[in-house]
Request: fold
Amino acid sequence: MWVESRREKKNWFEKGHLKAGRCPWSVKHCRCLVVVAALIATASFAAAFTMLGGLESSDGSKKGTPFLLREPAFQVFVVTNAIAFSYSCCSLLRYIELLLYSNRYDELSPIDGKVETMYLLTTLALVAMTFAFVTGVYVVLTPSPVLAIP
Reply:
């Protein structure tokens, strides 16, 4: 039975089962992971260039630097946002690698391993994005004693 399933798995990409909608669970889940990773990459990219608190606009050497640069929570925000962006991009690159080399695999075990790696990278990106969100909200709402924890 294991050999038969292995032979069946071997030809999923070659027989065109992906187009017919008959594909292994890993390929179906892989498509969902791509959407999630792309959304995380988009949100974290936008957050990187939309600086919390604004930018310094006066003339001088500090022009264009964020107002909250010295705040520890802002620094955590920047780091976790960069981690989220990096992990989501790595997950997307893993998917591209999966598409490029899918016909070269003799069995689906390497494909399953790549999908598991995508799960891990996307989960880590989601966790990092959550921390970035929490620290971003905290650093912006710190002056408001009602909404932030002092």
In short: The mean pLDDT is 76.
